[in-house]
Amino acid sequence: MAKKIFEPMTALIPLPAVMVSCQKPGDKPNIITIAWTGIACSEPPMLSIGVRKNRFSYDIIKSTGEFVVNLTTRDLARVTDLCGVISGHDEDKFKLTGLTPSPSSKVKVPLIAECPINLECQTRTVLELGSHDLFVAEIVATHIDESVLDDEDHLDIKKLDPLIYCTKTRQYWAGLTQFVGRYGYTAIENRDRKKS
Ligand SMILES: Cc1cc2nc3c(=O)[nH]c(=O)nc-3n(C[C@H](O)[C@H](O)[C@H](O)COP(=O)(O)O)c2cc1C
Questions:
Q1: DSSP readout, 43-88?
Q2: What is the distance between the alpha carbons of residues 153 and 42, in angstroms, rounded to a whole number?
Q3: pLDDT of residue 16
Q4: With the CA atoms of 121, 124, 170 and 177 taken in that order, what torsion angle do they form, in degrees rounded to the nearest 10?
Q5: Of all atoms in ligand 1, which is nearest to the CA of residue 93?
Q6: For ligand 1, is residue 68 a contact (CB within 6 Å)?
Q7: What is the pLDDT of residues 131-148, one digit of tens each?
Q8: Which residue from 7, 103, 119, 13 is spatially nearest to 67, judged by alpha carbons?
Q9: Cβ(60) to ligand 1 under 6 A?
Q10: What distance in Å separates the CA atoms of residue 115 and residue 176, rounded to the nearest whole number?
Q11: 78 CA distance to ligand 1 middle (Å)
Q12: Does the first or last residue of the chain, that is N or C, have fewer Cβ atoms within 10 Å of its Cβ?
């Protein structure tokens, strides 16, 4: 490999592009597209989202401490992009996209019915990092649509067809088709190697 060294950049590839729903009580619900997201802890299950202070959604999420991370798919690419280029300050994004707000089970924020996986979140910590504040939140309920589950209720990645965002190129990709291995498959190979 012949590597070039660049300025520090957020070249962590790929990332999911998720739609985060939020709502202040009595106000219209809103959706913001977020790529700065990731799992932060297993027990309790936690994730983080990075949000700029100037986003319409920022004050909503900061004041309520609640939001829903809605996973996106190839079919939802256009609405995902739209929710990332238009502000809830100017438009009702549920009306604009035709997406359906549906009641959550634990938080007072609607989830997006069309998204196959919805993670209800309650903020535990907010870190001021610079351009973005990082909301570290506990996942308090998880919804998975039956259409992306197999007969044993395991997630079927091909059926899910997740939308993938590549930071450096600012492109959306889809099409995870080639299964490579399962967590720990090399441990089994290693055990067999030692036996022989
Ligand atoms: C693919 C994509 C990823 C984005 N990721 C983030 C992000 O991680 N954090 C953020 O603050 N804004 C992000 N944005 C920008 C916001 O989604 C955008 O500014 C949006 O219009 C804000 O909506 P709001 O003003 O209704 O909150 C992203 C936009 C796109 C298209």
A1: TTTEEEEEEETTSHHHHHHHHH-EEEEE--BGGGHHHHHHTTTS-T
A2: 20
A3: 97
A4: -50
A5: 26
A6: no
A7: 999 999 999 999 999 999
A8: 119
A9: no
A10: 18
A11: 14
A12: N
Confidence of residue 195 (pLDDT cuts 50, 70, 90): confident
Ligand 1 centroid–CA 33 distance in Å is 5
Is ligand 1 within 6 A of the CB of residue 51? yes
| pLDDT higher than 90, residue 177 | no
Ligand 1 centroid to residue 51 C-alpha, Å = 8
List the one residue out of 125, 123, 104, 124 whose CA is nearest residue 115: 104
- Classify residue 185 by burial, with Cβ atoms within 10 Å: 0-12, 13-18, 19+: exposed
Q: For the CA atoms of 131, 26, 28, 77, what is the dihedral angle to 10 degrees?
A: 70
- Cβ atoms 122, 137 nearer than 8 A: yes
> Which 3 state secondary structure label does DSSP give 94?
helix
Other C-beta atoms within 10 Å of 152: how many? 5
Ligand 1 centre to CA of 105 (Å) is: 25
Whole-model pTM: value is: 0.97
Taking the alpha carbons of 134, 115, 156, 105 in that order, is the dihedral positive or negative? positive
| pLDDT attached to residue 18 | 98
Q: Which domains does the chain have, with CATH numbers?
A: 15-195 (2.30.110.10)
